[in-house]
Write a structure and sequence with these properties.
The complex is a heterodimer of chains A (118) and B (191). Chain A contains 4 helices and 1 strand, in the order H-H-H-E-H. Chain A is mostly helical and 118 residues long. Chain A has 2 domains: 51 residues, no CATH class; 42 residues. The longest helix of chain A is centred in the C-terminal third of the chain and has 56 residues. Chain A is elongated and about 115 Å long. In chain B, helix 1 packs across helix 2 and helix 7 crosses helix 8. The termini of chain B are far apart. Classes of the chains: A mainly alpha (118), B mainly alpha (191). The interface between A and B is large, with 35 and 48 residues. Strand 1 of chain A pairs antiparallel with strand 1 of chain B.
Chain lengths: 118, 191
């Protein structure tokens, strides 16, 4: 096995030799270059992990902006729900009025028919 | 997850907006840091943070609690950052990132080791910023924030194998730049 063949595997393994096949591990044992590369991947991954605790400081006002947008969203939602409630009330009212008008018309019509027959 | 955070998450899931606001305060620095590392500039990072919390607020009722809250938030941040990067690619040229101040929260060590670690972190941060966004996103999410390949692929809208290939390329580029082997120095300086 050549060092070039192992380069991609070393990047994939990220310093973990268990991920390599026996042939790869055998090559590393006898190759100083690949041993150095493996050690550097370990160092790189360790350094990357430390970045997680390195918190950046956002410019002032970010949290306030986020909370403001959440509030606006909450208000919009509330207004929408009120409007939806009103819409439902209007529709119910119109439906009830139509039903009542239809009922009245039916009564008037049936009475007329009754008189004509009488 | 610390108890206090878990209680806030439980309350927020039940619709308590004040609890959600507390969650924002408690996690905003971490969310901003991840957003900044993914998009590479403050303006976009702020937009990503805002969008992340809006989506989180909308979806907190669906958060089942089988994953950590921070992991759930990282995934939303990654998704919002991918959208922002796509938008930036369409509408803007690449702008340069300012050097954001780093708050060192690592424990005290001996001055030499500390200085070396600090210098490595600075060079690493710089090298990360110079990576193309598609490579940077994957290595940050996998090697810094420990998200599984599957989650990374899902949030970035790529296949799992593409995520792995990008990760290996990103690791290789960083390794070549930060720790060049004999014969690699010239290439690393040219990067």
């Amino acid at each position: 096995m050549q060092c070039e063949q192992l380069t991609d595997l070393l990047a994939a393994a990220g310093g973990e030799t268990q991920m390599l096949d026996p042939e790869g591990r055998g090559h590393i044992e006898g190759c100083l270059r690949c041993q150095a590369e493996l050690a550097q991947y370990r160092k790189l991954l360790k350094a990357l992990q430390t970045l997680r605790t390195d918190l950046l400081t956002p410019a002032p006002g970010l949290v306030t902006d986020v909370l403001l947008r959440l509030e606006q969203r909450g208000e919009r939602k509330a207004v929408k729900s009120i409007l939806q409630g009103r819409k439902a009330a209007y529709v119910t009212g119109i439906a009830a009025a139509s039903l009542a008008a239809g009922g009245a018309a039916a009564i008037v019509y049936s009475r007329r028919k009754f008189r004509v027959a009488g | 997850m610390p108890d206090e955070l878990a209680q806030l998450v439980a309350a927020a899931r039940g619709g308590d907006r004040a609890a959600f606001e507390e969650l924002v305060r408690a996690t905003s620095a971490e969310t901003y840091t991840l957003a900044f590392r993914l998009v590479g500039n403050e303006e976009d990072a702020r937009d990503v943070v805002q969008e992340t919390y809006l989506r989180a607020y909308k979806g907190i009722g669906k958060f089942r609690g089988d994953a950590q809250f921070s992991t759930w938030l990282y995934r939303i941040t990654a998704n919002c950052a991918a959208t922002q990067l796509g938008r930036r690619k369409r509408h803007r040229h690449e702008d340069l990132a300012d050097d954001a101040p780093l708050a060192d929260t690592s424990p005290d060590r001996d001055p030499l080791a500390r200085a070396e670690a600090e210098s490595l972190r600075e060079r690493l941060t710089e090298a990360l910023e110079d990576l193309p966004p598609r490579l940077r996103s994957v290595i940050v999410l996998r090697d810094v924030y420990d998200l599984p390949h599957e989650a990374i692929a899902a949030e970035l809208g790529i296949s799992e194998s593409a995520a792995k290939v990008r990760l290996h390329r990103a690791r290789r580029r960083l390794r070549e730049r930060l720790f060049p082997l004999p014969g690699e120095e010239a290439e690393a300086h040219a990067m």
